[in-house]
Design a protein that fits this description.
Layout (H helix, E strand, L loop, with lengths): L1 E10 L2 E7 L3 E5 L6 H12 L24 E6 L22 E6 L5 E8 L3 H7 L4 E4 L4 E2 L13 E14 L4 E8 H6 L8 H7 L1 E4 L4 H4 L8 H9 L2 H13 L11 H15 L17 H7 L3 E3 L6 E3 L5 H19 L3 E5 L7 H14 L2 E5 L3 H4 L7 E6 L4 E5 L9 H6 L1 H9 L3 E5 L2 H17 L12 E5 L6 H10 L3 E6 L4 H8 L4 E4 L5 H8 L2 H10 L4 H6 L7 H11 L5 H7 L8 H14 L4 H14 L13
Parallel strand pairs: 2-17, 3-15, 3-16, 11-14, 14-15, 18-19, 18-20, 20-21
Antiparallel strand pairs: 1-2, 1-6, 4-5, 6-9, 7-8, 7-9, 9-10, 12-13, 16-17
């Protein structure tokens, strides 16, 4: 059993999205792309306890918070209106308007469609009449009127589920229901997809921030709650616990003094009201209801070598996450057929444990859907299992697969995944630099300039830009092709190139930053100040061989620093020099490109532009000519 198709409309930050899922998948992309939203959408459709919330959705679950009908004023004008000779249309007087009306668009509805395939025999028997067929090769529903067409191996049984959420004006509240998709077209009201149906699908959504804190509690939907439900231990557990607590009277020992106070209150109470109104106040452990017990019962875990035990949620975050893994194993063994969706398994977990979690969860479940920012997690997934998400400004979410260019062989991709490729896959914007020196130095320059003048410059981190070392100028175009195919914004940074090489790179990137020197070190040395060079020369520890060659570096500072930069190429020497420069000491080309990159990635708003124009206008001197009488 697995989810193969997901369609989301008007849910949170997603206006629309269509996602095809493999047997196991990891969703990647920059923060706020929509990874968690997709998992939440699946949980709305398949999660057995999600609709128990009241209300199940709220205002913020609708795209851009729009859940009311939209009113559009529509004006219909005289048909005789004609354009003038110059192409401009005459303004029609109000009295010549034929009609003024109001069109009302329907209220937005959250819709989530999920297709589940590869059903087991028990599921086939349970879902019976609502079963359809899915073509795994075409990745679409099989709708041919030929019954024999479902026999090939790539055609599998499937069920389609639709979640609908909307605002109900009469109730002044939000409503949500889940249906079998097929029934929405066959029946007027649709066949509900009930909680018992959802339990057959076995979808478990493990949120990174909440799963560990609730794992060993008895709150609804916790891992322990799921395990108890699978073992059908609920009635005996609750009745026995409530009966035992009902017999326990807190602080009944007179030596404690509390019972005496309660007796005094009881005596006073009898003076004012008859006993039928209430007598004998005494203390109990809890409210003695199932719901209250769910909130207060907590598992304790022994810590250290002694017998002392502490609540499970007081353990370390890493311990909690490993506890979650152990409980997942228990659930998988009991249920045998589950779909696990898990957010960021790397949280507070060392790399070797991250890989173990992914390996074990994949082995235990029919399907796994992860989100992650960890290269150690991403390494456990093949390229076809890695779904790169991109969301446009209008809310359209799309997916892309990793397709390597010819110059990037699979072996190299895997060997350099952590150092060169992973960070780019997780970013929205990428700056591909020619070599290590540029990769080290340009972020330092941007960060330094942002400290000096934050209004004009910004660090690469603040702009959401990942810088990648291409290794050589010939690799920039191919790497740009890879990331551009995934919907990333790609920029290039390199030394002076001939016309052919420059065009080859420029055609693959959004903007190419190319300086006129044949080496980054030359760019720095020729365009900074002598004072900056001497200050750095006096502060740095020189290697022994250069000390002998340049006993007094300040006597020939350009040659001495040139040798030092060459010796420390790709070893942060140029970056360290730039980090201690003032704005005037940083080469003008670097300042210009840092400002240009900020303008490209973080353009000023209309309000900022207006404010800047007004500020400039206020600072301009006002010249007033004297009139004939000498008055200004």
């Amino acid at each position: 059993m697995r989810i193969c198709y997901l369609r989301v409309e008007n849910f949170r930050g997603i206006k629309e999205a269509t996602i095809l899922l493999p047997n196991h998948a990891v969703l990647i992309g920059d923060n706020n792309t929509g990874k968690t939203t997709l998992l939440e959408a699946i949980d709305l459709a398949l999660g057995p306890d999600r609709l128990n919330r009241m209300p199940p959705i709220d205002e913020h679950d609708f795209f851009q918070g729009q859940y009311l009908p939209t009113r559009i004023e529509a004006e219909v004008v005289d048909d005789k209106t004609e354009p003038e000779a110059n192409g401009e249309v005459n303004t029609v007087p109000a009295e010549e308007l034929i009609a003024v009306g109001t069109e009302v668009e329907e209220a937005p509805t959250i819709r989530i469609d999920v297709t589940v395939v590869d059903l087991n025999d028990e599921q086939k028997a349970h879902f019976g009449d609502v079963i359809e067929f899915w073509d795994n090769e075409q990745c679409k529903l099989y709708e041919q009127p030929n019954p024999e067409g479902v026999d090939p191996g790539h055609i599998s049984e499937a069920i389609r589920v639709t979640f609908l959420g909307w605002y109900e004006p009469e109730e002044d509240d939000f409503q949500a229901k889940t249906f079998f998709t097929r029934s929405l077209t066959e029946a007027e009201s649709g066949q509900p997809f009930r909680k018992t149906d959802k339990q057959r699908c076995g979808f478990l959504y493990l949120r990174s921030l909440r799963t560990g804190s609730r794992a060993l509690s008895l709150e609804r939907g916790s891992l322990l709650d799921i395990i108890l439900r699978l073992k059908e231990l609920r009635p005996q557990m609750w009745e026995a616990t409530l009966s035992h607590l009902a017999d326990y009277d807190v602080a009944s020992d007179p030596a404690l003094g509390i019972s005496g106070v309660l007796d005094s209150i009881n005596a006073s109470l009898k003076k004012y009201v008859p006993k039928e109104w209430g007598i004998q106040p005494h203390l109990k452990v809890s409210n003695l209801t199932r719901d209250h017990l769910r909130k207060v019962i907590t598992a304790f875990i022994a810590t250290g070598d002694g017998d002392h035990a502490a609540p499970f949620y007081r353990q370390g975050t890493g311990t909690l996450n490993m506890l979650v893994l152990a409980m997942l194993s228990q659930i998988a063994e009991d249920k045998q057929n589950v779909i696990f969706a898990m957010e960021e398994p790397e949280t507070a977990i060392p790399p070797y444990a991250q890989k173990r979690i992914v390996h074990e969860v994949r082995k235990l479940s029919a399907q796994t859907i992860f989100t992650s920012h960890s290269p150690y997690v991403l390494e456990e997934f093949q390229n076809e299992e890695t779904i790169v998400l991109r969301r446009e400004a209008d809310g359209a979410l799309s997916q892309a697969e990793i397709t390597l260019p010819e110059s990037v062989k699979l072996k190299r991709y895997r060997q350099e995944f952590r150092t060169r490729f992973c960070e780019g896959l997780l970013a929205r914007r990428i700056l591909i630099a020619e070599g290590a020196t540029e990769t080290q130095s340009f972020p330092v320059v941007c960060r330094r300039l942002a400290e000096i003048d934050p209004g004009k410059y910004a660090s690469l981190e603040a702009l959401g830009i990942c810088i990648i070392d291409a290794g050589t100028d010939t690799q920039i175009a191919d790497l740009a092709t890879l990331y551009k195919s995934l919907g990333k914004r790609v920029f290039g940074l390199c030394d002076n190139q001939d016309a052919t090489a420059e065009k080859a790179i420029a055609d693959k990137v959004e903007v190419l930053f190319m300086h006129d020197e044949h080496g980054f070190e030359d760019l720095v040395l020729k365009n900074t100040t002598e004072d900056a060079l001497k200050r750095y020369a006096a502060a740095v520890t020189w290697p022994q061989h250069l000390q002998h060659k340049h006993p007094s570096p300040e006597d020939d500072i350009y040659t001495a620093l040139g040798d030092l930069f060459k010796w420390g190429k790709a070893n942060w020497i140029a970056a360290d020099f730039l980090a201690q420069c003032t704005e005037a000491e940083i080469p003008q080309w670097l300042r210009d490109k840092a400002a240009e990159l900020k303008a490209l990635c973080d353009p000023p708003s209309a309000a900022d532009v207006t404010a800047e124009i007004c500020e400039d206008a206020e600072q301009q001197p006002i010249e007033v000519e004297a009139d004939g009488d000498g008055a200004n």
